[in-house]
Design a protein that fits this description.
Layout (H helix, E strand, L loop, with lengths): L1 H25 L6 E2 L5 E2 L1 H17 L4 E4 L11 E9 L1 H6 L5 E8 L2 E9 L4 E6 L11 E4 L2 E2 L12 E3 L15 E3 L4 H9 L5 E4 L4 H13 L3 E4 L20 E4 L5 H4 L9
Parallel strand pairs: 3-4, 10-11, 10-12
Antiparallel strand pairs: 1-2, 4-5, 5-6, 6-7, 7-8, 8-9, 12-14, 13-14
Helix pairs in contact: 1-2, 4-5
């Protein structure tokens, strides 16, 4: 099984690096269109989505694929890649260098591997989560191949908490730490995984925003709290286009009770 996981990682590294190289050429240079859900899409998103799907098809015969710009109905196959070709399209179009390429691999409806690459920051994150899959997976979460861990720090007013643009109602004068807004769902979760922040709220993430990050966060020792419904296991045959999974992610379970009261007015 070791060779299998090495193949998965090397494919993710090589594919995201190649896609990222091409996307950088269009970074800050493209116009975006608005989709039905209010999010933005560019020709770069669509090209990257197709290129990743083509690479998966060429290398993993019989695997399913679900992607933001392609097929959004979860397939029946045991193995399925869930991809977000460009998370942070608004940042990408405006020349803000925080955006990512996200690849999650699911086995029997549960993510077991996640890889997220931020081309402009030259950062890659990956992780393995065996969970109840029965697979003999490696363990741990990594940034640029070095192990990362969620923070065990005691909460202070100088620690950070991330919000998304739809969760700003959480910001109140007695909020226990400093607020940041990065504009990229996957990276918000990664900053919890690598110990940079103690928590984050994402009000409307889709399945492709979270499939890879879900693995990496938990592999790093973080805690995932679904605020409406559990994202996994997924349901084959379901169209995930308009299904959101509001999430509170924290570095350790005891922080849930600290941050959750501030989220009462967030629309999810």
């Amino acid at each position: 099984m070791t060779d299998f996981w090495t193949t998965i990682l090397e494919f993710s590294q090589a594919t995201s690096a190649e896609i990222g190289k091409q996307l950088i050429e269009h970074f800050g240079q493209v116009q975006a269109d608005e989709k039905a859900d209010g999010s933005l899409v560019t020709q770069a998103d669509k090209w990257a989505d197709q290129a990743i799907r083509d690479a998966i098809t060429a290398n993993f015969q019989g695997y399913g694929i679900l992607s933001e710009e392609g097929n959004k109905v979860f397939p029946e196959q045991d193995w399925c890649w869930v991809i977000d070709p460009l998370d942070g399209t608004t940042n990408f179009t405006r020349g803000i260098p925080i955006w990512s390429i996200s690849l999650g691999l699911l086995y029997k409806k549960i993510p077991v591997f996640g890889f997220i690459y931020l081309p402009t920051l030259n950062e890659s994150f990956h992780g393995y989560w065996e969970g109840s899959s029965g697979l003999a997976a490696p363990t741990g979460a990594f940034r640029n191949n070095h192990p990362i861990f969620a923070s065990n720090d005691t909460l202070t007013s100088n620690h950070f908490f991330n919000v998304c643009s739809r969760s700003t109602s959480a910001i109140q004068k007695d909020f226990p730490c400093k607020i940041r807004m990065l504009g990229v769902a996957s990276y918000n979760f990664l900053t919890v995984a690598n110990g940079s922040v103690l928590g984050t709220i994402e009000a409307t993430p889709k399945i492709w925003d979270i499939a890879a990050a879900w693995v990496i966060l938990q592999a790093a020792g973080g805690c995932w709290k679904s605020l409406k419904m559990q994202p996994f296991p997924v349901s084959p045959g379901v169209d995930y286009s308009n299904i959101s999974f509001p999430t509170l992610a924290v570095s350790r379970p005891e922080l849930i009770s600290v941050f959750e009261p501030f989220l009462q007015d967030v629309k999810i």
